[in-house]
Amino acid sequence: MKLTSSISKRNYSSLLWHAGFLAFATNFIDVDTIIPAMMADAGGTAMHIGILTAIMLGGSSFTQLIFAPFISNFAFKKKFLLSGINLRMFALLLMGIMLFYSSKIAGDYEIGFIFLLITIFSMGGAFSNISYTDILGKSLLENSRKPFFSVRLVINGTILFSSAFLARHMLNSQSYPANYSSMFFVGFIALSIASLGFWNIKEVVPSKMQVKGPRHFFQLIRKELKENKKLFYFLGFINTMGISSTLFPFMILYAKGNFEGNEINIGNLLLFKVIGGVLTGMLLFLYSRRFKYRYLLYLNTALALSAPLLMLLMPSISTLYVVFFLGGIVFASYSITMNGVLLEVTGNTNRALYTGIAGAGNILPAIFPLLGGWIVQQFGFLHFLLLFMVVVLCSFYFIHRLHCSK
Q1: Cβ contacts of 81-84, under 8 Å, gap ≥ 24
Q2: Selected residue with higher pLDDT from 265 and 89
Q3: CATH label, 5-202+217-402, candidates 3.30.930.10, 1.10.3720.10, 1.20.1250.20, 3.90.180.10
Q4: Longest dimension (CA), the chain
Q5: Which of 206, 203, 209, 204 is nearest to 72 (CA)?
């Protein structure tokens, strides 16, 4: 069946429905503030934060390399998309229940349960993301893609901004673990409603790439690397710039260890991050037909470098809020550019494969939080921040070589 204008509009609305309610859920399960703060309040160390960050931000993406060969063999991928989001909902529900009864669980077991459930949540996201990228690319007409990303950012920003106040209130009105338990229950409900958008998607364009096994999959990767020169630089970029999202969980730990505990308001840090993302979304929406991915990538990298530099030069609570504001800008611009660049270097038949290959590009983001946790414990935050800036600085080379034209 051909992708018509009416089907594209239906899918456009369905994808925005999911994006809107997912944005609402995001503030209650934020990986940069809420989850690392929860781990710290549960008694987690720098190494615990590093492992947790590796699971959430790097490891989950890396496992796409495992899932992609399997999913690529199917022409229609909606069932895998639904399976992944249902797994995430299940993990959130169990997390809320576990925290509600955490007073009856020993500390080490509580941290173990957090690791287990966050792993399930992250793996579900990795599994569904392959199908989502494939369905997104073939379910919208090409001239609707860039406007979709921009509109999605505006909707996300508006909902993120409004829900941030509710999340902050819930976080501050109760003490640990009741506050986090309530937030995960809200996240579960919002994600359940968001999943209805996926049920309404009409997947009409088949996209199948025969992958016979792991050996064949890696042969395909070598073939694509030879034939598509942009792929190598794309992987280099997401390996270096991809670590930018690992900074902020460590900033939570840094703040708790270096500033007075009663001065640190996790809800306010979340709010500043959301404001940065909202402003970015509005600007990108207004100039969606004028901006080019290449220049946005350069700006994104420069801002990612400035965040730790500010903390080194002017360590204070006020600077921490600025860092999280910049973090919101980096996260929002990175999201729209990575989706856009991935669609630019792929076609309908190989998009799921490339999403899996992109997972391989998250090797460094998967390892860096583990290394970071060890560095912080052994040498302190200065060495960690310096290493972070060196790696991100390498992104400029890969952006230059990508030559994004759109």
Answers
A1: 81/128, 81/131, 81/132, 81/135, 81/198, 81/201, 82/128, 82/195, 82/198, 82/199, 83/127, 83/128, 84/124, 84/125, 84/126, 84/127, 84/128, 84/129, 84/131
A2: 89
A3: 1.20.1250.20
A4: 61
A5: 209
pTM given for the model: 0.71
What is the Cα–Cα distance from 74 to 355, expressed in whole angstroms?
15
Q: SS3 breakdown of the chain: % helix, strand, coil, rounded to 5? A: 80, 0, 20
Q: How confident is the model at residue 93 (pLDDT cuts 50, 70, 90)?
A: very high
Rounded Cα distance, 318 and 310, in Å = 11
73-82 pLDDT tens trace: 677 778 888 8
Torsion, CA 224, CA 229, CA 230, CA 236, rounded to 10? 90
- In tens, the pLDDT along 35-54 reads 888 888 887 777 888 888 77
pLDDT, tens digit (0-9, with 9 covering 90-100), for 358-383:
665 667 877 888 888 888 888 888 88
Q: Which residues have a Cβ under 8 Å from the Cβ of 135 and sit 6 or more positions away? A: 77, 78, 81, 201, 203
Distance between CA atoms of 326 and 329, rounded to whole angstroms? 5
pLDDT at residue 296, rounded to an integer: 79
User: Could you read off the pLDDT of 237-254 as tens digits, one per residue?
Assistant: 888 887 887 888 888 878
Task: Give the whole-angstrom CA distance, residue 87 versus residue 31.
Answer: 17
Token reading at 296: 């946005």
The secondary structure of 19-45 as a DSSP string is HHHHHHHHTTS-TTTHHHHHHHHTT--
With CA atoms as reference, report the closest residue to 51 among 3, 106, 112, 107: 112
- Mean residue pLDDT of the chain comes to 79
Distance CA 145, CA 151 (A): 10
Q: Please tell me the distance from the alpha carbon of residue 22 to that of residue 368, in angstroms, as a whole number.
A: 27
Average pLDDT score over residue span 338-346: 65
Distances from the Cα of 144 to the Cα of 20, 23, 150, 232, angstroms? 18, 21, 10, 27
